[in-house]
Amino acid sequence: MANKKQKVIDSIRSDIVNSFVKPGQRLPSIREQSQQFACSLNTIISAYQELEREYLIYSRPKSGYYVVAQEALLPLLQNKRIDFTSAAPDPSSMSQMDLRQCLNKAMELFETSIFTYPDPQGLLSLRQEIVKLFHKQQVFSSEQQLFIFSGAQQALHLLSGMPFPNGKTNILVEQPTYWGMLESLKAQNQTVIGIDRTPNGIDWAALERHFQSNMIKFFYTIPRFHNPLGTSYTPKEKQRIAELAQKYDVFVIEDDYLADMETNNKADPIWAYNGSSHVIYLRSFSKIMLPGLRLAAATVPHSIVPSLQQLKRTADLSTSVLSQGVLEIFLQSGMYEHHAKQMKVLYNHRVSKLKEVSSRLLPHESLYSVTSSGGLFSTINLHNIHTEDLVKRLHTRGVDVLPADPQFLSSFPKMNLLRMSIMRTDEQDIEKGIHILADELEHAKQTSNSYKPFFWI
């Protein structure tokens, strides 16, 4: 049945790509298709459902299935690339029908709020739902401490620029780290210090020295499924960060953007280790739901609440009510939990596949932080291979990769790394893409005399 179903899918997709059927055109009925392809009705139903998940067709009750693909998207379907760069969810992973239902429901429930300026801190009803979600991850705070932001980027930008109760001014960040944080700090001309984070962790003596001597306002860390390394701190390491923060009066911004992907039930966040007075716990909803909703939430120490309330009000008056309403309905209905479980399974399979294929095909010395413990990212060490040339050669072969250069401070020694994302690569793409990468690494090795040694300054 699987082979027959795939033949049906490939045939219909080809008709759409080659414009044999047009956007808005009705497809033959399920019964007609089963006769044409000499297969069961269930095979056609399953094939139509798969095409619907790819947003190529949609169903009208009591009417049939219709083509929705836009002609501008057809070249992408014809020339599918292997994308190891994207940090946005695969569109096919989110049910368009569920999203549409939640949007319609949000319009009904929050119609009055749309015509007002609601609480800049976020809708109280949504904050109460997120408090429940946070409790499941051992973050026991209240709705008074919780803020809704227009994306994690807004939260990081506002927190970076505001004064903290400790009166300190310098910011400590892991190296490498999330590029968006570095861009925000650069735009604000903040004084930033980097501390090396490797697949083996962090230099604890250096961390304590920075906390003690360098007037650190806050330490920005991604303890779980680090971006770009993909690695996580152990419980003891997270506890130690919390203890050092309290000891030296340094705040910690804990970017827990992938908490829903955790496979270890005992992997609590830093906040849970007696860090509530010095830890800001930040969660994005972009990886599980949609980046376009622009939603993130943070729980902050009581000492920061008044300043952050004022700053949030001056930034945007309030986060989109419709977006907040959609998330609240997702949480209340159980759709969020269900979707998160599906995404966890999907991404865990992909990252495990990445490790298996990379370990089998790539040189051992290139496997800088290839992990199968979960998350989205891993890194490949190119050593002295000329990155720009390699990226171009891979691009011409249909494989997109991303150098990790923007994830280092300009003043910090850089490593020659590729960040590998599995968000938009299925297992077949991973196998094919790593084969091509291995081939190009071997080509670069064999022609190393044509490459100049590559050093970071």
TrEMBL record:
In the C-terminal section; belongs to the class-I pyridoxal-phosphate-dependent aminotransferase family. SMART domains: HTH_GNTR. Residues 2-70 form the HTH gntR-type domain. Pfam families: Aminotran_1_2, GntR. Its cofactor is pyridoxal 5'-phosphate. The keyword Transferase applies. InterPro entries: Aminotransferase_I/II_large, HTH_trans_reg/aminotransferase, PyrdxlP-dep_Trfase, PyrdxlP-dep_Trfase_major, PyrdxlP-dep_Trfase_small, Tscrpt_reg_HTH_GntR, WH-like_DNA-bd_sf, WH_DNA-bd_sf. This is Aminotransferase class I/II-fold pyridoxal phosphate-dependent enzyme. GO terms for molecular function: transaminase activity. PANTHER family: HTH-TYPE TRANSCRIPTIONAL REGULATORY PROTEIN GABR, TRANSCRIPTIONAL REGULATORY PROTEIN. The keyword Disulfide bond does not apply. Keywords: Aminotransferase, DNA-binding, Pyridoxal phosphate, Transcription, Transcription regulation, Transferase. CDD domains: AAT_like, WHTH_GntR.
